[in-house]
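Two proteins, back to back. First:
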Amino acid sequence: MAVLAAAAMHAAWNAIIKIRTDRFASMSLTTLGMAVAATPVLPFVAFPTLSVWLWIIASVIIHVGYRLFLVKAYDAGDLAQTYALARGTAPLLTTVSAFLLFGEVLRVAEIGGIVLLSCGTFLMSFRGGGHARFNQRAVGFALITSMFIASYTLTDGYGARLADGAASYASWLFFCDGLCSIVIGFLYRGRSLLPVLTHEWKTGLLTGALSAGSYGIVLWAMTQAPIASVAALREASILFAMLISVYILGEGTGPWRIFAAILIGSGVVALRLG
């Protein structure tokens, strides 16, 4: 249930980013909000060892690429399609990589759940969108985003296991990632970023808190269960994103999107039972 709550929070902050006019600035502000949320926790968690810092640094670098291509995907396509493809492809990549790198073996029900979830994801992305034509640019950016998602999932899952508690790893990761993101933002935009920070700081704190809470839960869960299983269950956020896209953003629905949602929901149930 904790991971499902994290999924809902994840879909919510992504929807807020999607509707902003300046998504690059909003994403930078969200990451800064995560750092603000993590700062009060730092005195109460362990300082990472050198080996853990290497995983944190790697994760920060990967997250830079993830945010860049996520913004590009949202600029090119609608929320339900781009979000579904980016998030839903990642569990397949994570499952294979976790097996090859860490020797993680999943139960039959968990593998079945991941397959169902991924099939629903592809169906929603390619046949369930509100636009009739195939958006090659949006799909390309979404697929690249999925590679970054799988990469930081594996990096953070292993790093959190090495750390003295998931809270320590998450807090220091959010703090460092936030500082890095805002520095890159100013290097890229200069002083033009200041008006966004001034006018949208409340939104940044909200999306940052949602993002930090969501991923903090996932990092804890990955220290308790297989990384691939947690990563896949987290993608129940695709269902929440679909509801937001239809009922709040008005992006449209249809039989293919409904069928895709059923497949995704079935995959979530299989993972939960597995």
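And the second protein:
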Amino acid sequence: MSRLEVSCRLGYPSGFQLEAAFATNALVTALFGPSASGKTSLLSVIAGLRRPLEGRVRLGDQVWLDSAAGIALPPEARRIGYVFQEGLLFPHLSVRDNLLYGWRRRGPGAGPITLARVVQVLELEEVLSRPPHTLSGGQRQRVALGRALLRNPELLLLDEPVASLDERLKLRVHDYLEQALREWHIPTVYVSHDATDVRRLAQLVVVLNQGRVTAVGCPADVLGRKSNPGDPAAS
């Protein structure tokens, strides 16, 4: 598993400051914390969507960002699949064409991820010809995950992909996500404020609060078996 190393210092006009760093070899690393703690901002730095005042992002032997050396690869030069909270599918394209959009932008070197296998794993056969507005929330997130996988990414970024779903759909999408991760073993950074999600999916947790890393460790050590005082679910 490629080692991911991230550090950044990022400021906002509001006065919020993100100063965070972590390193991980885990298959799934969760960025966990309350709303406005800096989770999505840190994910955006990894993706190249935000450029910090100072920072470094390295995956294996690839340096995507090194402010001291003047390196800052654009998002399209980083082998990343990104799934947003609302999926953000192209409304004018069918499910098949949304998936093909990811496949046509796959990284160099054909990987093992094929359209046929993604459709099979995520059970999308019956909706391939449908437009996004006819899909359920869970179906839209499965299509967004499939599109991200078909980019042949070296790193998968998931920004609270089940936050808008009810509990039944959330569990269903998690089932599909776990199957995809077992199949393709893509290192993943998963943003969540839900401790239950983190315990289920992650091997390493990076806890953020007010723009700072306050804890790093396995879910059992950092979160315990029940909600701790810093867990938003406890409030």
